[in-house]
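Box 3.1 A note on notation
Throughout this textbook, protein chains are presented in two layers. The first layer is the amino acid sequence; the second is a token string describing backbone geometry. Keep the layers aligned when reading.
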Amino acid sequence: MAIKRWFEWIAPLGVMGGLACLIADMDPSMYSISPTTVSGFALLVVGCCSGLVHFVSLRRSVKALSRQSNELAAGPSEARQRLVSTDDVLGELVTSFNDALGSAERHTKDALSATKELQIQLKVATSQRRQAEAIIHSIDDAVLVTDRFDEVLLANDSASRALGFDKVEAQRRPVDRVVNDPQLVGMIRDVRLGKAANERRVIEHRVRRNGQDRIYRVTLSNIRDSQGESGGVVSVLHDSTREIEIARMKNDFVSSVSHELRTPLASIRAYVEMLIDGEASDEKTKREFHDIIMAESVRLGRLIDNILNISRIESGLLEIKRIPLSLTVICKEALDVISSQAKLRNIKIEEQLEPAFYQTLADKDMLYQAVLNLLSNAVKYTPSGGTVTLRTMVDESAKKVAVRIIDTGVGIPAKDLPFVFDKFFRVEANKNVAKGTGLGLSLVKNIIETVHKGTMVVTSEQGKGSSFGFELDLC
């Protein structure tokens, strides 16, 4: 189209320009050809040629238009069929495109729906896993979970402490590289390879950590999936060391109580039988037998009272009445009772007491019993001519009041000093010095530390004497 328009304009302009140049250069006196004349002829030729080309182009266009008009006027021609067939193809293409678009929309909606469902399932699974992990981490017992390849899936803090590994670094590592206990690793593998569904074993296992042996009750459970394949092993380690120790202590306690009760009962029974058999013929012998029976009865009653008091304190069944009272006054009352016994044994009693206005919140009867027991022991294990010193001290800055009972007695060997507060414990080297049940110091410790939340202190040197005491809070 641009070429046609160019020919339309250039033909008349060329003819007109050529004629103008020829006219302007015409000189009747001269028959020479100038440059202007040449340019005029050139423009004239270009204009005529352009006009001719434009005329031929117009003629062809008119013929083509006439032919198309005849074809359309003749009825349904090949041209019309071509137009119709073209419309049909376009329609089919549009229909196919619409169908494909609708199918894509449906698939997109299905995919979005499936994606949302998977996201919900993932959130639920994640939440359940976090809940399970929170439950496992809150359990005091050691829990170790391994998969079907014996790799660590999960472990709580108790397991890391009991078995000595880092629970974070242990994730997805083989259990034999995490737990330095071949016997426990072997038990886990045996349970995983077991053929019984949901197999469960309970084994007592000893673990040595930091130079100490701990006894665990290990429960191993083999978890299987729906196809019967092992999904892993859950190991739960319950520390039974304290329970076993308590059971042993109970057995020792029963044995010791039986022995201590049997001794005075045997004496009472023997002397009663001698009285019945008439072996005490005179009044003096009868009196002696009666005194022995009475002394053993008192000893038996004191033993039973101490056992009951210790049991009540440890079980929390003892009724406690705390009131503000002066520790100096309590010490004075205990000294009045023990002074006669000290005088008979030629033992000097020294008092170093603080003013009575310093008070502590305590149960009067129980605190009095504790001070009296300590004074009685000091007098019993101090030889004639010795000294027992009762001292009270006050530390106002720390808000503490303390009692010290210092004797010049036989003392306690260093190897026995850590056990002096155990039930029925008696120093072997001092058994011949004085009689006792081995419950007095245990009762004192329970009164001071369990009931009054105080602190017991003891120092001793064999052959030179001992110092027993306690500290309580000022009120």
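Residues 7 and 53 are 7 Å apart (CA to CA). The first strand starts at residue 142 and ends at 146.
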